[in-house]
Write a structure and sequence with these properties.
It is a single chain. Helices cover 68% and strands 0% of the residues. By secondary structure, it is mainly α.
Length: 138
């Protein structure tokens, strides 16, 4: 019995489509967003780092403060952010993610160190959304 060419072609195309459609989401390559979002991340890290240097943060144990300051340094901050879903736009809705990250950055930079210490970012729905997106739980 001869294997019909059309059936073979159909199976081949279906298999090819299956393998192509199952590749992991690598996000969206948006160089302008990557540059803008990285600048925002650096601004947040600088703001948090300046707060860690203030005397009223001495209640934080020295080892944790050192670890946080190391992570907030510009080079380390950039490296951490470059691993995030928001940087690569591996999110369900790119427009909402960009808007939330921008608003969360503005909100965070407007907070005083005392407000940051009291975890005021929890009050921002945009920051909560960003946190959810960054942790992969949109």
């Amino acid at each position: 019995m001869k294997f019909p060419f059309r059936l073979f072609l159909l199976i081949f195309l279906a298999t090819t489509y299956f393998f192509v459609s199952c590749k992991p989401n690598k996000g969206i390559d948006d160089p302008i967003w990557k540059e803008e979002s990285q600048k925002m991340a650096i601004s947040i890290c600088q703001h948090l780092n300046s707060c860690l240097e203030q005397k009223d943060w001495e209640a934080i144990p020295e080892k944790w403060r050192g670890l946080a300051q190391n992570r907030m340094q510009e080079g380390n901050c950039q490296n951490e952010f470059r691993k995030s879903p928001i940087f690569f736009l591996k999110v369900p809705d790119v427009t909402i993610a960009k808007e939330a990250y921008t608003k969360c950055t503005q909100f965070t930079l407007a907070l005083t160190c005392e407000q940051l210490k009291s975890k005021s970012t929890i009050e921002s729905k945009d920051c909560l959304l960003v946190n959810s997106l960054q942790s992969g739980n949109p």
